[in-house]
Specification:
Length: 437
């Protein structure tokens, strides 16, 4: 098997400005271009270089893959997160433009290992420990290849890929990558954070990628759908409780401790409450800024309280938020009742009780979206009220979905001297390391 080439969706706008650094050939007319360019969407057509083109795609290919690069201006990063912002980003490889949903989608096409160099530097600091960098290279490579294979299976199957069910009483929805039909993955946290060569990789990152080239996690001879999140909060979550209802034996709930087989079943409400209000001795319970800075970029470091956190709403604030986010009329929110928790304590079915309406929502990301302007840190929370107050206080644990590798826990393991194999097999039980190319 040869190193794959992948397609990464970067941005989606009516007008996109970009800079070609080096000579690029536009395959549709065989002309060469360099320097600053602008492309526009106009009524199902593409406007470029003074021409209105009746085409659905334009492809710019560098004459020299190794030395050529392009820059996209005003790329939105952290989409719908609290730190959302725009920045200019540079990329290796080819630049494709597609007409989609009355806008243009910019797609970067490049070699998989070059993509990984950016992902690792975008997801964490390039100064991270070597073993952590190696571990992240393996899971990012595994996840990506698993998504490409999954996409091929979905497209070849006659079955409709269903990611939500809705009745008058219940809305259950999970978010994965099923909406990416014209490229393999997107560049934001929805998939893996990818910011091209904007985040310069150092020699350590390149060494970690080269030393693990083609190495993936497998289970039953299939490439693992290797997931990761910022902080599991002490116990990781199972795949089926967050995404589609499939059980992967390598994505099970484990305690983020040397004795990972300690069984903490936090599906019980009182057990979850005790856990969330405790400060357990686990890898990701760490406040060492030198370690945290390995996996948290500057804007991530703006979040100081990820292991245990608290969010407070007045009843009016929460009611306005939930009514707006669900586009339903609950009027005043009276209560939030967990109906079902996963093994990590994350709520996967939540009953929202209002004066006019009661609705059950899930899974975890839908809950996080409804209860926050961007994304609640996690769905692993309890509701508290103070005497003589209508305020609703959410006390929670962890940052993210909690499935697979816990980045902060893995950073701590790397700092403690664990090997990348030890780190991987701690979080991905029943998996093996296998070289595929």
């Amino acid at each position: 098997m040869h190193e794959p080439t992948i397609r990464v969706g970067i941005m989606h706008e009516e007008e996109i400005s970009f800079q070609l650094n080096g000579t690029y050939t536009l395959l549709q007319n065989k002309n060469n271009y360099t320097g600053k360019q602008t492309i526009k969407y106009r009524n199902d057509k593409i406007e470029f270089d003074g021409l209105i083109l009746n085409l659905e795609e334009l492809i710019f290919k560098p004459n020299n893959y190794d030395t050529g690069s392009f820059q996209l201006f005003d790329v939105t990063i952290g989409i719908k997160f609290h730190w959302e912002r725009k920045e200019n980003q540079s990329f290796k490889g080819s630049l494709h433009f597609l007409c989609e949903d009355d806008k243009l989608t910019a797609i970067n096409v490049l070699k998989l290992e070059d993509y990984l160099a950016s992902v690792i530097s975008s997801e964490m600091k390039a100064s991270s420990s070597m073993e952590l960098l190696k571990a992240h290279a393996v899971i990012s490579r595994s996840w990506l290849m698993a998504q490409v294979l999954k996409s091929e299976n979905i497209q070849s199957s006659e079955e409709v890929y269903q990611s939500s069910t809705e009745t008058t009483e219940e809305l259950i929805k999970w978010y994965d990558r099923e909406d990416h039909s014209n490229f393999d993955v997107c560049a934001d946290d929805h998939c893996q954070r990818y910011q091209g060569i904007t985040r310069q990789s150092n020699e350590a990152v390149l060494k970690a990628i080269e030393s693990t080239k083609g190495l993936v996690l497998t289970s039953d001879n299939q490439i693992c759908d290797a997931r990761f999140s910022k902080c599991c909060g002490g116990v990781s979550e199972t795949f089926k409780n967050v995404w589609e209802p499939k059980a992967h034996k390598y994505l099970q709930a484990i305690t983020d401790h040397e004795e990972s087989d300690i069984k903490l079943d936090l599906r019980n409400e009182s057990a979850a409450e005790n856990w969330i209000q405790s400060s357990p001795d686990v890898f990701c319970n760490n406040s060492d800024k030198a370690i945290l800075s390995q996996v948290l970029n500057d804007y991530d470091m703006e979040t100081p309280d990820f292991f245990r956190w608290e969010v407070r709403y007045t009843q009016n604030e929460l009611s306005e938020l939930v009514n707006r986010k669900t586009d339903k009329n609950f009027e005043n929110i009276i209560d939030l009742i967990p109906l079902e928790r996963g093994l990590s304590g994350r709520i996967i079915r939540l009953k929202i009780v209002g004066e006019k309406l009661t609705l059950i929502i899930g899974k975890e990301l839908e809950i996080r979206k409804v209860l926050s302007e961007s994304h609640l840190y996690s769905s692993n929370f309890i509701l508290e009220r103070e005497d003589k107050s209508t305020d609703l206080i959410l006390k929670g644990a962890g940052w993210g979905h909690g499935v697979g590798l816990c980045q902060i826990g893995a950073a701590v393991m790397g700092a403690k001297g664990y090997s990348h194999k030890d780190i991987l097999l701690h979080y991905f039980k029943n998996a093996v390391l296998e070289k595929r190319y």
